[in-house]
Amino acid sequence: MAMYLDVITGVNDILLRAVRTVGTKTALVDHSREVTYGGLYSEIGRVAGHLADHGVGPGDRVALLMANSVDWVVATLGTLRAGATSVPIPVTGTAEDVGFMLDDSGAATAIVDAEHAPLLHSLRESRPELGALRIVAGGSGELPSGVVSFDRWLAEDPAASPYDSLGVEEPAWILYTSGTTGKPKGVLLTQHSMMWVVGAGWMPFLEWNADDVMLNPLPLTHSYGLDVTLAALAVGGQMVTLPRFSPKQVLELLEEHPVTVLVGVPTTFAYLSRALRGKETEYRRRTLRVCVSGGAGLPAEIVEETEKALGAPLLDVYGATETSTAMTMNHWKASRVPGSCGVSLPGMAVRVVDPADDADRDPGSEGEVIVRGPGVMLGYHCRERETREALRNGWYRTGDLGSLDSTGHLRITGRLKDLIIRGGENISPVEIEHVAVQHAAVVDCAAVGQPHEALGEVPVLAIVCAEEGDARDRLIDEVAALCREMLPSFKQPETITAVDAIPRTGSGKVVRHRLKETVQGKFAGEHEKAT
Q1: Of 18, 106, 506, 526, which has the fewest Cβ atoms less than 10 A away?
Q2: Is residue 398 domain-shared with residue 478, that is, in the same domain?
Q3: Beta partners for 460?
């Protein structure tokens, strides 16, 4: 498959090319403003210069605590043009999470929007290690003493010029992992690794081009949302974003804009397809040509419902923050292998091995997925031991279980550490989840292991119901019957319980240790039923 090598370069080169060719075209649209390529480049340059005026340069880290917006993109790319490393912090995190990431990254400067500025001020006052943190805040109101105005930076020319010499193989971003099993780790990614996925993945596999309008409701703080943004700029297209995912707002934006590409995670499309039940023909006439899902396993039922509702193919991609988003993709015009997340990107080698001895598994046999190639991270920030464990002999250990068929199509079957071991039998939570989600009234679900005196561990299923009251109790009975029908006895959940929401990261992964805590607290609740 042909690659687009010309985009595998520094972001500044990409933007300069866009300014020369489509400078007056709208590049980005958010809930409050839009900006052309020419305007975007100017704003990024001003932010870079102002950072330099304040002593920020090579080797420094600049944190971002901002909701999805044009300003977010300006801030992260302005940091790169200043020669520094950008540290995006998820706005969904707790004060403890934000404080940890600021301290762990060593950021001396933080750019924050008006909504989250009070949190940053509070952290600076309460945590001595953050006392010297320089805050650059958005918003038009009066700012506290010592806080710099981001809006002024956007409007006024700085004294200094942008550094513009950050090497493409130097750390450009520290992106914190989801922390599904503990404290998040800062993943060091380069411009080269992120743009490799653009030139070897998004462009050749999905044929993204200058005519595309991409609707991106993903958190830009995650590698998936960020790389989609870089891809939109690289092809000279247009990207529409919103502060946080809302099915209602996404459907409104599909009405307002000629969207051709919609990206999300499986829960994005689950909620959208349910919101569109009975209204499918309204959206099948739209401009949408392809939908893309990543971040978690994509059940066949969600694919079927989404394609029926939106009239466009829904393609699964597979990757991780540590691989700069994607390592396998499905081509949007090629025939698909059901349940597969595609084939490896050019230059990325994907293997399925026995975790015990790294021997390659036969086609169709399950093992751990490992990957090597230009998209793989430099390592974890200030974590040498974890880096050595994750990168062995040049191969990144994903911790995911999967299988490769004879044509190179990858299927993900679960997580090595998520396996539930019931009386010596291995059970993947994904197997149970794929059965439960087949019920039309199950909005979301996840399975976890719970301790058992005799068996060591048993599976427990949590479901988010579309029904309330007695209907919810009936649904639990019906899901239990579905599991008995479709799963062998040892894989059937010991307990099914209804929850308000499945704890997930911004990239769609289940935070299983939090779900275990929730389920344990509900064992005596009224919505539990043993199967």
Answers
A1: 526
A2: no
A3: 448, 495
Side-chain-side CA neighbours of 74 within 13 Å: the count stands at 34
Q: How far apart are the first and last CA of the chain?
A: 49
Phi/psi for 157 (5° steps) reads: -75, 140
Cβ contact 219:225 at 8 Å: yes
Q: DSSP for 210-242?
A: TT-EEEE-S-TTSHHHHHHHHHHHHHT-EEEE-
Please state, in angstroms and as integers, the Cα–Cα distance from residue 337 to each residue in 88, 342, 350, following that order.
35, 8, 17
Q: Are 148 and 111 in contact (CB under 8 A)?
A: no
Can you give the residue range of the structural domain that contains 260? 245-310
What is the CA angle 306-307-311, rounded to 5? Answer: 120
Do residues 18 and 112 share a domain? Answer: yes
How confident is the model over 496-511, as a mean pLDDT? 88
Question: Domain check: are 403 and 348 in the same one?
Answer: yes
509 near 294, Cβ under 8 Å?
Answer: no
Q: What are phi and psi of 385, to 5 degrees?
A: -65, -45
Q: Do 428 and 402 belong together in one domain?
A: no
Q: Which tens digit of pLDDT belongs to each residue from 87-131?
A: 999 998 889 899 999 999 999 999 999 999 999 999 998 998 888
Q: Is residue 167 part of a domain?
A: yes
Other CB atoms within 10 Å distance of the CB of residue 493: 29
Nearest to 276 by CA among 301, 241, 307, 298: 307
* Separation CA 297–CA 433 (nearest Å): 10
pTM for the complete prediction?
A: 0.87
String of b and e for 102-124 (b: at least 16 CB within 10 Å)?
A: bebbbbbbbbbbbebbebbbebb
Structure tokens at 509: 């992964």
Which of 139, 179, 181, 163 has the alpha carbon at shortest distance from 83?
A: 163
- 528/8 Cα distance (integer angstroms): 53
pLDDT over 90 at 193, yes or no: yes
**Counts for the chain of helices (H) and strands (E), in that order:** 17, 28
Asked if 375 and 522 sit in the same domain, the reply is no
Residues 249 and 367 in one domain: no
